[in-house]
Amino acid sequence: MALRTAWKLVNLAILLVLLVVLMGGWTRINDAGLSCPDWPGCYGHIVMPGSHEALELAQQRYPDTPIEKHKTWLEMGHRYLAGSLGLLIAALAGIAVHKRKTRSYPVGLSVALLLLVVIQALFGMWTVTLKLHPLVVTLHLMGGLLTLTLLLFLRQKLKRLNIREPINPAAPQRWFLIGVFLLLLQIALGGWTSSNYAGYACTHWVSCNPGTELGLDFAAGFDPVKSIGPNYQGGQLGVEARAAIQVVHRIGALVVLTYTLILLWCFSRIPALTTPLRLLTVLVVAQVGLGVANIVHALPIGLAMAHHFMAVAVLLALLWAYDRAGMAVKEVIDG
Predict the structure, then answer these.
(1) Cys bridge to 143: 120, 290, 296, 305, which one at CB 3.0-4.6 A?
(2) pTM: predicted TM-score of the whole model, two decimal places
(3) Closest CA to 88 of 5, 3, 159, 25
(4) Residue 128 CB: number of other CB atoms within 10 A?
């Protein structure tokens, strides 16, 4: 009964963390991250008041942050979803503690997820209190994607809990884990690009800023602790530092694309991996195309959100390929 409950909860948690990550991106793209000046409430309320008198009182308490109701609801909706996700992960950890004597039950992974979600809550608070500090925003994004990744790993372990034979993480899975690492690093670069508002720094999709004397300031662009606040909305770095960030992000995209093609070349003949690898390759190529389109069209909201969504889709496809790689090894062992 507990295992069946854990299976239902982990599937629901995966759906919820996808919503949290995507809504976090939508909140970010709409510049709604500071629409609530306090945390965990918004203008001193857990639910934004609706009456004119209450809104006036809330505005008086925080005169430096004009109330924009559509943005505050974006931010609070994101917080409500994140809080619900935390409760689901706490329930999964509770089941794991209850099942700690069950052989092979992923207790450590379940408890690690609970610790991660607590850390994520802290980063959510610091995102507000430190006024969108780029390092905090980037780490908050990566924490959300790491939560998604670990939940998918937990789902895989629960799915295979009754398999007595150990599934040897041989060559295919190890190569896919390297791919996951490279992709998460590239997404972190994307988060750093977004949090520093560096997407506007290059006007050309190949050579950044041709015909100008602008250089690339890598030292300033990748100094994570440089104090230039107090408010980071809109970005505070110079254009040369932002251009350096975007160029490195482009190089990362080429690395991920190249590695994806290597995986396709090496493992696509394995029946269990043919479909995941083809899907992964299509999504990575589409993501590179979206990156180019965002530069050409100066980051319209629709294209920026599509780029964010596609990054999550690529991660899901890569984790699916990782899972199928393990099943392919098992088929060899069973055969």
Answers:
(1) 120
(2) 0.91
(3) 5
(4) 20
Helices (H), the chain: 2-29, 52-61, 69-98, 107-129, 134-159, 171-195, 218-221, 239-267, 271-296, 301-334
Read off the pLDDT of residues 231-272 as tens digits, 9 standing for 90 and up: 888 888 999 999 999 999 999 999 999 999 999 999 999 998
Residue with tokens 């329930």: 91
Question: 92-95 contacts: CB < 8 A, separation 24 or more?
Answer: 92/6, 92/9, 92/10, 92/13, 92/154, 95/2, 95/5, 95/6, 95/9
pLDDT band at 333 (very low <50, low <70, confident <90, very high): very low
- Name residue, tokens 């390759």: 281
CB count within 10 Å of CB 300 equals 12
Asked if omega into 224 is within 30° of 0 (cis), the reply is no
Cβ contact 156:326 at 8 Å: yes
Question: Is residue 53 flagged as an active site residue?
Answer: no
Catalytic pick among 53, 56, 68, 75: 75
Place of tokens 């300033």: 220
**Residue 234 C-alpha from the chain's centroid:** 21
